[in-house]
Design brief:
This protein has 379 residues and is an alpha+beta fold. It is 51% helix and 15% strand. A 4-stranded antiparallel sheet has the order 2-3-7-6, covered by helices on one side. Strands 1-4-5 form a 3-stranded mixed sheet. It binds acetoacetyl-coenzyme A (CAA) and flavin-adenine dinucleotide. Belongs to the acyl-CoA dehydrogenase family. Keywords: FAD, Flavoprotein, Oxidoreductase.
Amino acid sequence: MNFELSEEQLMIRQAARDFAQTELLPGVIERDENQIFPAEQIKKMGELGFLGMMVDPKYGGSGLDTISYVLAMEEISKVDASASVVMSVNNSLVCWGIEKFGTEEQKQKYLTKLTTGEQIGAFCLSEPEAGSDATSQRTTAVDMGDHYLLNGTKNWITNGGTASVYLVIAQTNPELGHKGINCLIVEKGMEGFQVGPKENKLGIRGSDTHSLMFTDVKVPKENRIGEDGFGFKFAMQTLSGGRIGIASQALGIASGAYELALKYSQERKAFGKQIFDHQAIAFKLADMATNIDAARHLCMHAAWLKDQKQNFDKEGAMAKLFASKTAMDVTVEAVQIHGGYGFVKEYHVERLMRDAKITQIYEGTSEIQKIVISRSLIK
Ligand code: CAA
Ligand code: FAD
């Protein structure tokens, strides 16, 4: 594995850094406070190629590798994790899933708009009674010959209100258990499809999280992804890559908070010297920097394996497990280093601390990552 970034990768990182500073930073506090979806900013991210980073240019994508995606995710997440979750879901769940397993017609119809930001995608696996226990799908997709009849409720769906394209996992043949599950592409506006109210959240408050209700929605057969019964494997394989995206989000939240704390520690004086010169503070920063570096290496390794077309299920889960814990630990310490100023919104670190928590929950909780990792140890 080569640790040196290519010219292209450095350029992508700089472009994401510049975008985050100039387009995302202004207004980030207000968007968080008032739960405002960053619509304009997401549109620009689409125009700049950040929403279909790894997709083949023939479908409007940027044709980049996963390392570039990790670099961009880190930079965007340093500033606005609400924007980066939209980016992660669109890139690594929706675009990747359709490009890898969709038909040519599905790619032409959906990918070309999803990569440019003309449309946004959502990935709909979780239900009120099926979160970690994802095979217990209650949503049904009954085979009616030329279409499926979709009924049920999905919970906590990121981009739930703003998406146009929804990848919905549903049970077609309960007797076959997870082998009877399908993934259907549902479009906003299909009759019987309703979006529930927006969730009022602790963190990533600018992101748009809703439950979705399906009542006798007719979904054409050509909207199924893969063979009959492939839906659960589709979800698992897609989530493996998604976890690299969320690990990078956690990495970005941690490094954003660390950079603010390092700067503040050299500006704030107490007892006649910079607080950095108190070893208790310098050692906190040393721990933060070390864990961030370790998290970055895990993210990069998982991304590199994916780019080499090697299995990365375990490494992606390790990256998410470690980076999300690092995000929590680092943001708590960043608030501490800021003292009372860390507790108010203007200094950003309290928001990063609230945003960090979700990275230990979605795309598989930390306990689920440990299941994935431990099972792979004895495979
Ligand atoms: N690739 C391919 N197939 C896989 C797989 C993978 N990575 N992981 C599991 N499978 C297959 C298994 O091989 C098995 O198939 P066979 O019976 O043919 O061998 C089948 O899937 C069922 O697997 P398990 O027996 O391991 O299933 P399980 O019930 O024990 O659950 C689990 C496994 C890992 C816990 C899984 O349920 C899981 O990942 N749960 C967490 C769900 C999750 O991550 N949700 C995230 C929702 S999306 C989201 O959150 C988006 C966002 O925040 C922004
Ligand atoms: P549960 O599964 O009920 O878990 C509760 C607790 O029990 C957790 O601590 C869990 O780790 C633990 N637990 C459960 N089973 C085990 C076990 N076998 N061993 C040890 N511990 C266990 N889902 C989507 O499909 N699409 C999205 O876009 C999406 N976006 C989200 C956005 C937000 C803001 C949030 C909050 C959630 C989102 N989710 C999404 C859902 C998310 O993936 C689930 O919340 C998550 O998978 C956990 O499921 P649950 O909430 O039902 O918790």
